[in-house]
Amino acid sequence: MSVVAIVGRPNVGKSTLFNRLLGERKALVEDFPGVTRDRNYALVTRHAKPFTLIDTGGFEPASEDRMLVQMREQSQLAIEEADLVLFVLDGRAGLTPADEEVAALLRQSTKPVLYVVNKVDGPQQEQAAAEFYGLGIESFVAISAEHGQGINDLVNQICAQLPPAPRETAAADQVRLAVIGRPNVGKSSLVNRLLGAERVVANPEAGTTRDSIDSPFRYNGKDFLLIDTAGIRRKGRVSQKLEKYSVLQALKAMDRAHVVLLLIDAAEGITEQDLTVAGYAYERGRALVLVVNKWDAVAKDHRTLNQFTQQVRDQFKFLPFAPVLFVSALTGQRVAKIMETVEQVANEFNRKVSTAELNRVLQAAEAAHQPPIFQGKRVKLFYMTQTAVRPPSFVIFVNRQEGLHFSYRRYLANKIREPFGFLGCPIRIEYRDRVR
Ligand SMILES: Nc1nc2c(ncn2[C@@H]2O[C@H](COP(=O)(O)OP(=O)(O)OP(=O)(O)O)[C@@H](O)[C@H]2O)c(=O)[nH]1
Ligand SMILES: Nc1nc2c(ncn2[C@@H]2O[C@H](COP(=O)(O)OP(=O)(O)OP(=O)(O)O)[C@@H](O)[C@H]2O)c(=O)[nH]1
User: Fold this and answer.
1) Same domain for 10 and 135?
2) Ligand 1 first shell, C-beta below 6 A
3) Global pTM?
4) Distance 265 CA to ligand 1 centre (A)
5) Ligand 2 centre and the CA of 228: distance in Å?
6) Which ligand 1 atom minimizes the distance to the CA of 18?
7) In this predicted model, what pLDDT tens digit does every residue of 225-236 receive, in sequence order?
8) How many angstroms from the chain centroid is the CA of residue 421?
C-alpha cells in the first residue's frame, strides 16, 4: 500500500484536506461506533489506487524557531517514509519564508512532490496563486479543501504519481504474521521466543525489507512469515525519533500481514496508540490477536486477570472477537499459546462457508426476528453467499437495502458470527438489491 504524506505550515488546511480526501468511509457492517481513529492516519480506498494518508501536522503551539524545527522534522519523515508528498500552501496567506525552506528540503529529495495551493475559493485567490511559482516549481494544483474544489483533479494527480499496487509474490498459503506494538513493549523478545519455540522450525534465510525483518518459519506443517518491525534500527534517521514513525512502521507492517499480533504492555496498561493501531488493523480487515506482554511484571491476586481482561474488552470495544492472551516474553510463560491461537485465527481468516450453510443461518435469523417494515412493506432477505476470505466477506441479497437499519444489520452480523465464530477475524457484509 502506498503512503501519501501531507506536509505544510500550521493552519494551511492540512486536516481539512485530509478529511476531504478521506470522504465517506466505506462502512463495514460491523462498523462499531467506537472504532478508535486517529486524525493523522487513514486508509483511502475509494479511488483507483488505495493509499494510506498521513497528516504530519498537528503542531504543538511553539515559537517561530521551534515551529521551523518541527516542520523540518515532519518533512523529513514524509520524505523518508512516504511514496508521495503533498506540500500544502496557503493561497490566502501567500508565500512565506517557512514555505520556501520546506520547499528547499523537498527539492533535495528524490521523492515525488505535489504542490497544493489551498484556500483558492475565488477569482481573487486564483490570480494571487501565481505567486507560488516563486518557489521555482513547474506546476501546482489549486484547491479549496473546505469547499471541495479541485479535489478530483488532485486525486487524479495523486493516483497518476503512485506506483501500481504490488502483486502478491508470496506463496498463497503462507500466513503473514506481523508483530507490532509500542517501543519497548517486548517485540524483539517475543519474536526471539516465537522463533525459538519447540514446534517452530525457523528458516535461517530471513529477509530484510525497508521497514521490517521477515523470517519465514514452519509451524504444525504450515508456512508462516513473521514480520518483525522491531528488528530494523536505522541510526541517524530523523524520522525515527518521532512517535509518528513507530505508528507508520506498524501500519506498513499491517498492510502486508494477514494476522496481527498487537502487543500491549501489562505494566503500562493500554495506551491511545494501541487503540488507534488496532482501529487501523480493523478497518484494514486484518485478523488480530491481542497479546498482553510482561505479565510477570504485574503484581497479581486472583482478580487481576479478570480485571485486566475487562479493561481490554472495554477499551477495544470494536474487537469483541479478538482473543486476548497474557504472556511473558521474558520467562516464556504462555508464549506457546500464541502460535496455537495464531494458527486457529489464520484458519478462520481463510475459512469458506458453503452457501447452503449460510442460508440456513440467514433463514433462522430472519424467522427469529423479522426484518423491519420499510415504506409499508416488509424487507425481504433473499439469500446470502460468501464472496471472499481474508477477511471473510459476504453478500446478502435483499429487496430494499435502505430499509435495513443499523440495528438489524448488527443483529444479522451477530447471528452470522454465532455458529461460525471467526475467532480474531473482522467480517464484512455487503447488502445488494435484487429485484424480484
Ligand atoms: N477559505 C478557506 N479556508 C480554509 C480552507 N481549508 C481550510 N480552511 C481553514 O483554515 C483553517 C485551518 O485549517 P486546518 O485544516 O485545521 O489546518 P492545518 O494545516 O491542519 O492546521 P494545523 O493542525 O495547525 O497544522 C481552518 O479555519 C479552516 O476552516 C479553504 O479551502 N478555504
Ligand atoms: N518483565 C518483563 N520484561 C520484558 C518482557 N518482555 C520484554 N521485556 C523487557 O522490555 C524491554 C524491551 O524489550 P524489547 O524486546 O527490546 O522491546 P521492543 O518492543 O522490541 O522494543 P523496540 O525495539 O524499542 O521497539 C527489555 O528490557 C526486555 O527485557 C516481559 O515479558 N517481562
Assistant:
1) yes
2) 8, 10-16, 57-59, 118-119, 121, 144-147
3) 0.80
4) 37
5) 14
6) 15
7) 999 886 555 544
8) 23
**Residue 408 placed within a domain:** yes
- Is 293 marked within a binding site? yes
**Helix or strand (DSSP H, E) at 303:** none
Expressed in angstroms and rounded, the spacing between residue 41 Cα and the centre of ligand 1 is: 17
Q: Are 62 and 11 in contact (CB under 8 A)?
A: no
Q: What's the total number of domains in the chain?
A: 3
Q: Name the residue among 184, 178, 193, 183 with its Cα closest to residue 330.
A: 193
Residues 292 and 371 occupy one common structural domain = no
Do 92 and 218 share a structural domain? no
Please name the residue that has the C-alpha cell 521474558. 330
239 & 220 share domain = yes
Q: Are 371 and 378 a contacting pair, CB within 8 Å?
A: yes
pLDDT band for 247, please (50, 70, 90 cuts): confident
By alpha-carbon position, which residue is closest to atom 1 of ligand 1?
119
Q: What is the ipTM for the molecules in this complex?
A: 0.79
Q: Are residue 390 and residue 342 in the same domain, yes or no?
A: no
Angle at 274 between CA 273 and CA 280, to 5 degrees: 85
232 contacts: CB under 8 Å, gap ≥ 6: 208, 210, 211, 212, 213, 249
Name which of 261, 233, 257 is nearest 329 in CA terms: 261
**168 assigned to some structural domain:** no
> CA-based Rg of the chain, rounded to a whole angstrom?
24
Task: State how far the alpha carbon of 379 is from the alpha carbons of 129, 176, 313, in Å.
Answer: 53, 41, 34
